[in-house]
Specification:
The protein is an alpha/beta fold. It is about 30% helix and about 25% strand. The chain contains seven helices and ten strands. A six-stranded mixed β-sheet has the order 6-7-8-3-9-10, with helices on both faces. Strand 9 and strand 10 form a beta hairpin. The two termini are about 20 Å apart. The mean pLDDT is about 95. It binds adenosine-5'-diphosphate (ADP) and magnesium ion (MG). The site of magnesium ion has 2 residues, from helix 1.
Length: about 240
């Protein structure tokens, strides 16, 4: 991209984000004063042990939850300023979510699963079908369009889920432990696909507790007890490099 002399707006920005949960009279501080920005086309991993706040962070970016404090901006829009209806539109169009457990609709075929989020974008049936076929071809499943999830392997299911997440051409792809439910070889294939999607220009935010998975990203955000401990730049590993 040509130098234009100014920093482009990040695709995602968290500024001083905190989130506490009340459960059975106890308060859990899931995130405390987290700030993070994702430039367009960046590949970031959030890494930390179980319970460190990774999913909470991803859910806030995806508009599935709202912060107690601070701001979350996606595609230039501050989610806190939106109505529930507007936030649902951001969820449906600006972010693509991939989960550990795939979350596909069991009675729908691959192409129907991928076309589903486009219903909420006001697309015609033919447009939805064409886009879904295209996205499935992109993830190497052009020959599995009419298979139901039970007729697909774990890795193929996750690829359908990734195609579905990308169907509306979201500003950012969010993946929460995407290899958590597949074997090592399949996990490597899923990560290879995320790498390809990043190389094709997608902005990717990945959550994992595994170093080996996090290393696919250009930058690793280490979280512990809801706090960002440090940000590691793998593309430029000199101390303080790439800041
Ligand atoms: P991770 O994804 O890193 O394993 P989470 O973001 O899921 O961590 O959780 C962070 C902390 O917040 C944990 O202590 C967890 O128990 C708590 N937590 C997460 N979601 C909720 C919720 N809906 N209600 C109460 N506590 C929650
Ligand atoms: Mg989690």
């Amino acid at each position: 991209m040509a130098e234009t002399g100014h920093t482009p707006e990040p695709v995602v920005a968290l500024d001083g984000v905190s989130k506490t949960y009340e459960l059975g009279g106890e308060t859990v501080e899931a995130l405390a004063d987290v700030s993070l920005s994702l430039p367009e086309g960046s590949y970031t991993a959030v890494m930390g042990p179980s319970g460190s706040g990774k999913s909470t962070l991803l859910n806030l970016v995806g508009g599935l939850d709202t912060p107690g404090d601070g701001s979350v901006t996606v595609g230039g829009r501050e989610l806190g300023g939106l109505s529930e209806r507007e936030r649902a539109a951001v969820r449906g169009g600006e972010v693509g979510f991939v989960f550990q457990t795939f979350n596909l609709m069991p009675r729908l075929t691959a192409v129907e699963n991928v076309a589903l989020p486009l219903v909420f974008q006001g697309w015609s049936r033919d447009e939805r079908r064409a886009r879904a076929e295209e996205r499935l071809a992109d993830v190497g499943l052009g020959d599995r369009l009419n298979h139901q999830p039970t007729e697909l392997s774990g890795g193929q299911r996750q690829r359908v889920a990734i195609a579905r997440a990308l169907a509306p051409s979201p500003a950012v792809l969010l993946a929460d432990e995407p290899t958590g439910n597949v074997d090592t070889d399949t996990g490597a294939q899923v990560m290879g696909l995320l790498d390809d999607l990043h190389a094709a220009g997608n902005t990717v935010l990945l959550v994992t507790h595994e170093r080996r998975i996090a290393e696919h990203a250009g930058r690793v955000v280490h979280v512990r007890d809801g706090v960002v401990e440090r940000i590691e730049d793998l593309d430029d590993p000199t101390p303080g490099g790439g800041a």
